[in-house]
Amino acid sequence: MPSYFYKARDASGRAHEGIEIAASEEEVLRILENSKLIPVFIENRAPGGAAAVRGQLARRYYEIVQRWRTSVPPVSVALFARQLSTMISAGLPLVRSLRSIARDHEDKKLGVILERVSDDVQKGESLSTALGKHTGAFDEVFVSLVNTGEISGTLDRIMDQTATYLEKAEALRLKVQAALRYPIFVLSFAVLILVAMIVKIIPMFSAIYERFRVPLPLPTQILLGVSRVVVGNLLLAGGLTVIAAIAAAYFAQTERGRLWIDRTKFNLPIFGPLIRMYAVTKFARTLGMLTASGTQILYALKVMRPVPGNRVLEQGIEHVRSRVEEGDSLSKAMTEAQVFPEMLVQMTATGEETGQLDNMLTRTADFYEQRVTAQVDGLSSLVEPIAIVVLGGLVGVMLLALYLPIFNLGQAMRQGLLGH
């Protein structure tokens, strides 16, 4: 197990440093939080060399495989949180509650995971530690909320709030997906039509036009030329398409690629503001939920960094966390990050001044969620005619280019310019 060197300070401002042996940096953060210490600096003191690199690669591969094997839909996790809250409120023991939920839960994969969790809890592990082993099912935010509930003795209340939080987040995600699904389908369909016309339909017209002895219009020449090149080099074109797709997928996995793609999403016409507002809503609601549960702000910013699902906002959260570590207020750090809406910054500042940060963040998230819902409803009526116009325009331009020479067919026949 790796060791971590840390620097921290207590409530009085006195400096502390030391080395903790833990499974991850997140576990060190939880240890420091339980010790009432505010982390300033954490560094992995793993041994160097090629063996260490191989070990890190092996660990990352194992984590990816494990996450895939234990991946569970958020709606199943929300149902688990609701059931656990009800059973704990009724006074049932934790292990008995976990085993009962595992047997009855409709998601069999989650049921298997909960059986393992209940075994670990029975052996003496805390619930948060046992859940933290299954990263595909329970993310860091969920584990942090469970840990806070265990420490404060309010696990039933926090699980009930967490279930509501997950249900709202899932409902909003489905709304945004529904708004984006139709244009993606239309775009994909347009690409398929374009490929079919280039490979099958245009060559048929090309054979007819070869008998003409009149110059073809420029749009027709371009279209026939593109079709001739693609059909004549079909294997090469397919290979280049596959290579381009692999290169794009690799680029999308790099830090630079993810940042470029996510920044482009924010700048898309029509859909950009919706995507940005959706990411900001997730940030505000998650941070409000964590602070309401009593989670320390630095740790909250740490665990929720991937929650918005956009690299631009993730970098902004990391900047905010580093500035707060240095003593800045949350609202001032958010202003410096320059990725958060002004309203969210002002509501955060008000929350800090009044001591109601969690309430202000939740109210802001509610406001943005209403705006997202309104935009989704508006886009539903706007996207369909736009998609029809785009698709019809694309097909119409290609057909017009193909049929332009036929408009001159009568004149060509009168002049005797058709070959025999």
Automatic annotation (TrEMBL):
For the keyword Transmembrane helix, the answer is yes
Q: Where primarily located?
A: membrane
| Keyword vocabulary terms for this entry | Cell inner membrane, Cell membrane, Membrane, Transmembrane, Transmembrane helix, Transport
The record's listing under Pfam families reads: T2SSF
From the UniProt record, give one GO term of the biological process aspect.
protein secretion by the type II secretion system
Q: Enumerate the transmembrane spans.
A: 182-209, 229-252, 386-406
- Indicate where this protein resides in the cell: Cell inner membrane; Cell membrane
Answer yes or no on keyword Calcium.
Answer: no
Could you name the Gene Ontology cellular component terms for this entry? Answer: plasma membrane
Q: Which residues form the Type II secretion system protein GspF domain?
A: 80-203, 283-405
The way this protein sits in the membrane is described as:
Multi-pass membrane protein
- What family is this protein classified in? Belongs to the GSP F family.
Protein name according to UniProt:
Type II secretion system F family protein
Highest classification ranks of the organism: Bacteria, Candidatus Eiseniibacteriota
